[in-house]
Amino acid sequence: MQTNNTRDVYTLVTNQIIAQLEKGVIPWRKPWKEAGMPQNLVSKRPYRGINLWLLACLGYTTNLFLTHNQLTQIGGKVKKGEKGHLVVFWKVVDNTKEEKEAATDTAKKTTLLRYYWVFNVEQCQDITGYLIESPEQFNHVILPCENVVSSMPHQPAIQFKEPDAYYHPGKDFINMPKMKTFINSEAYYATLFHELVHSTGHKSRLDRKEVQSMTPFGSDIYSTEEIVAELGTCYLTSLTGIAPMTFENNAAYIQGWIERLQNNPSVIVYASTQAQKATDYILNVQPEETESEVTESDATVEATA
Asked: Is the pTM of this model over 0.70?
């Protein structure tokens, strides 16, 4: 185990997350578990907090990890060239005698952030006897959510061929991980709603510029579209009654993209208008009154006036 001060550990964790963001992966926005939830192979304890996301987004087919010491104890070893993955934890330590004597209050302990390294079972050899199959996960259909999906006119094809969720604007289809691989049913439908909102931007539907432009990950237009999709998801999860199960994830996701667009505070106004249009399209609802169009440029003028 290696020890550093808390600031250094925070930097390590932040760098891990930034690395995933730069590759187009949002660590906290992937609620399916084709590889299972990350846990320790030997103790069977699941990883929690930031460790959950740090390990889950690595892309292994099986999310079982162990330390180098544990690996040695069971007779295994790390494959040549493999590197460990960061895991952090809080450690409570007693203050030194001098600190205790100098203290004017009753505090005698300090909490420090520490880290160590773990290896995925795919990085190891000679451990076959310790591998077990994960139990089957069963999620259930939520009828109000199914009704939303089925009510969408001119719906894109929905396929389940890859363990990843995305909308392909060129070929106009949605790919979803299988329902049984999600943490729960609510997470499955929230993810599907997100992709359905993206699909409303296709030229044959609402012809939204953010979808049609095919801009790269991280650009302003891409970021705006992600906010549109997530706001639309919030609307749909609220209408179907599953919002309490998904809102925290939605909020964190939206905040992450807004921070990328700090120079354009009007984006949330524009995005909410587009999200409402997308939601109305999915629900096959025609608004009784047509509100005035809000464009990105109009919102910017109002915000800076």
From this structure: no
Give me the residue label for tokens 């910017």. 300
Domain ranges for the chain: 6-130, 143-304
Taking alpha carbons only, the member of 64, 39, 60, 34 closest to residue 128 is 64
Among 51, 44, 68, 64, CA closest to 12: 51
∠ Cα 18 259 305 (to 5°): 160
Q: How far is Cα 232 from Cα 192, in angstroms, rounded to an integer?
A: 11
The CA distance from 129 to 283, in Å, is 51
pLDDT band, residue 31 (cuts 50/70/90): low
Nearest-angstrom CA–CA distance, 84 and 63: 14
pLDDT at 208: 94
Q: Which amino acid is at 292?
A: S
CA distance 137 to 32: 11
Task: Report whether 69 contacts 101 (CB < 8 A).
Answer: no
Place of tokens 């991980």: 177
CA distance 295 to 297: 5
Q: Give bridge partners of residue 62 from the DSSP assignment.
A: none
Enter the DSSP assignment of 46: B
The three-class DSSP label of residue 274 is helix
